[in-house]
Amino acid sequence: PCAMADVSFGSIGFAGDAPAPQPSPPPQQDRAENAFLVLGYVFTVALYLSQAPTVWGIWVARQVGQSKVDMFVVTLVSCIVWMMYGLADPPTLPFVILNAVGIGIELLYLGLFLCFSEPWGRIKITISLALIAGASAIAAPCVFSFTSDPQLVFGIIGDGVSIVMYGGPLREVVVLPNPNLCSPF
């Protein structure tokens, strides 16, 4: 009589026999890195809210007065670009949420400017918002579709916008009429 050998198919590797390899867990971030991330998020929200006194003054006075809208528009553009950066592969959810909150805050601020501006100011704000929406609607699909590293592209654009945003207050520096006067700055 013939004896049947015990045959196992586990070593052959048929599909479905062996469990799929599990991805390795992400590397653990150390506490210092997490602390810096949290501080960055806190400071970013503080940046968004730093414009609140100006907006409150507009709300109370029911007029824009001497307040300028351009830095609110630049901050909105910054939030949009950095949110797109966070949506690129791999997506960073806290980064996206934080910038979405910034977009909401800036749109609220711009809405108040829109309500309490003179007609020419309303036209400027409306044109700015339309240009931002149009540029975002064109740029985002193009960058995500036609570039191999959308984070690099959005990072470079975001850096440029951030330089404009943080450098904006420098345009308010007072120029001394007499060059012989000493400036405390």
TrEMBL record:
<feature type="transmembrane region" description="Helical">
    <location>
        <begin position="71"/>
        <end position="88"/>
    </location>
</feature>
<dbReference type="GO" id="GO:0051119">
    <property type="term" value="F:sugar transmembrane transporter activity"/>
</dbReference>
<comment type="subunit">
    <text>Forms homooligomers and/or heterooligomers.</text>
</comment>
<keyword id="KW-1003">Cell membrane</keyword>
<dbReference type="InterPro" id="IPR004316">
    <property type="entry name" value="SWEET_rpt"/>
</dbReference>
<dbReference type="InterPro" id="IPR047664">
    <property type="entry name" value="SWEET"/>
</dbReference>
<keyword id="KW-0472">Membrane</keyword>
<keyword id="KW-0677">Repeat</keyword>
<dbReference type="GO" id="GO:0005886">
    <property type="term" value="C:plasma membrane"/>
</dbReference>
<feature type="transmembrane region" description="Helical">
    <location>
        <begin position="35"/>
        <end position="59"/>
    </location>
</feature>
<dbReference type="Pfam" id="PF03083">
    <property type="entry name" value="MtN3_slv"/>
</dbReference>
<keyword id="KW-0813">Transport</keyword>
<keyword id="KW-0762">Sugar transport</keyword>
<protein>
    <recommendedName>
        <fullName>Bidirectional sugar transporter SWEET</fullName>
    </recommendedName>
</protein>
<feature type="transmembrane region" description="Helical">
    <location>
        <begin position="127"/>
        <end position="146"/>
    </location>
</feature>
<keyword id="KW-1133">Transmembrane helix</keyword>
<comment type="function">
    <text>Mediates both low-affinity uptake and efflux of sugar across the plasma membrane.</text>
</comment>
<feature type="transmembrane region" description="Helical">
    <location>
        <begin position="94"/>
        <end position="115"/>
    </location>
</feature>
<comment type="similarity">
    <text>Belongs to the SWEET sugar transporter family.</text>
</comment>
<keyword id="KW-0812">Transmembrane</keyword>
